[in-house]
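Re: [ENG-882] Designed sequences occasionally contain unexpected residues at chain ends

Forwarding the minimal case from QA. Structure tokens:
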């Protein structure tokens, strides 16, 4: 017989997203690299990306840091859209 206990985690009631991708698409020429990617990294969360070569892990990192800009979609840092911000302004947001 299993014992089931319900509980609430109070510290996660007000979840604050630090980094958010909202329908981000990136392509080089006719080749689509990322197609409509959406995810959130919340405060206090450990986030890892796993996958084989060429699936876009480094591309996502480069989008977050501002080395490249998305074709479509928004990248938000602390709730503010930074998709078109240069690198030096993005570092002040994190």
């Amino acid at each position: 017989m299993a014992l089931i206990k319900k509980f609430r985690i109070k510290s996660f009631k007000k979840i604050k997203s630090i980094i958010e991708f909202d329908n981000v698409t990136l392509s080089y020429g006719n080749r689509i690299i990322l197609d409509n990617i959406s995810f959130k990294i919340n405060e206090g969360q450990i986030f890892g990306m796993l996958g084989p070569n060429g699936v876009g892990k480094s591309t996502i990192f480069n989008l977050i840091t501002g080395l490249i800009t998305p074709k479509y979609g928004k990248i938000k840092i602390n709730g503010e859209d930074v998709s078109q911000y240069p690198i030096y302004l993005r570092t002040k947001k994190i």
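QA comment: On inspection the terminal residues look reasonable. The chain has a mean pLDDT of 83. Proposing we downgrade this to a documentation issue.
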